[in-house]
């Protein structure tokens, strides 16, 4: 994939400029023609090398919602017996995201040239993970592509709904805390130093809390650059440790499932990801051991990845995976017991769906309880902040005015 910059004119003669991610100039020209633009110039990004690294890092991202719509529409059209290439061509016109539009155009060209859909998707690992590629490949080999795409669309919608609920529940407390921090910083940097000057000129005693906050505000005012460097350095060191070292990532993942209140939610999310993805792959005809390896890429927690690695070894040796699950301190006993029942009865996919539904409801209940709990906690935090403001700022001014 390359980035191309273009100049064109619309039907009214107005100049239009922009950039498109594509595999060739021809695809860029086709996309511009579809928009009924008159092409003036198409320049490859290689002609502007200093931008190449920036756009490589900032592009190639597709939102989860766009993928949900893509798989749902593709599954509907395949189920309606539309040829795959034609369905992909239709999606090119219906997709609003420019990068995803380019990706679909490339996939359609590959499939039209004789490639399989899964092989074409595999060319874009940042958009379509191994999970998508494996389950679609299984649908192609079993002749159940439309059915598998339906499973995948359902999976994506449920994952998107889960992410949306978690993000939605955190918007209110994060917003309140952010506003509180900004207001507090403004008071300490701009208001407290002026109050300190007034009190010192009047020769009045300064309360201890006011002196402490003034000292902090003076430090922030004089050494804000040092604080920014320290915070940025600490953040970069943390990101490096979590992303580049096994110990750092494992420690952070362990912290996430052990932290009070939120740990239980994180653990439940990982269980839902594991069971839902595993069930979807099994329904798509992927063998259990291979499905577990794919789920390993989806679950996104080092501790659960180690559990899956151990489970794959047991499955390869012919042992039930419920035996390893029952020994894990990170999985509830209910999960291993139900999976054991599913293995014994040959209804593992159905059991995994029931586990997923149960723990999805647990997440919903936990998020509702967390939201309810957050309201009084935030009120208490705001009350303490206001009390500190009154004691440190208003009280000295009141004492000063009463002295005259």
Extended strand count: 3
Query: Which H/E pattern describes the elements?
Result: EEHEHHHHHHHHHHHHHHHH
- The backbone outline, from C-alpha atoms, is flat
Catalogue the unreliable spans.
Answer: 47-59
Helix fraction, binned, reads: over 70%
From the N-terminal CA to the C-terminal CA, the straight-line distance is 75 Å
Strand order of the largest sheet: 2-1-3
- The secondary structure category is mainly alpha
Strand content: 5-15%
Rg over CA atoms, rounded to whole Å, is 28 Å
Mean pLDDT across residues: 81
Given the structure, what is the number of helices? 17
The profile of the biggest β sheet is: 3 strands, antiparallel
Describe the protein's architecture and organization.
The protein has 404 residues and is mainly alpha-helical. Among the domains are: 2-58, no CATH class; 161-277 and 323-404, no CATH class. It is 76% helix and 6% strand. The chain has 17 helices and 3 strands. The protein has helices at 25-34, 52-58, 64-79, 84-94, 98-112, 117-121, 130-142, 145-202, 208-222, 224-244, 246-258, 262-283, 288-299, 302-316, 321-327, 333-345, 348-403, and strands spanning 2-9, 15-22, 38-44. The chain has a 3-stranded antiparallel beta sheet with strand order 2-1-3. Strand 1 and strand 2 (15-22) form a beta hairpin. The radius of gyration is 28 Å and the shape is flat.
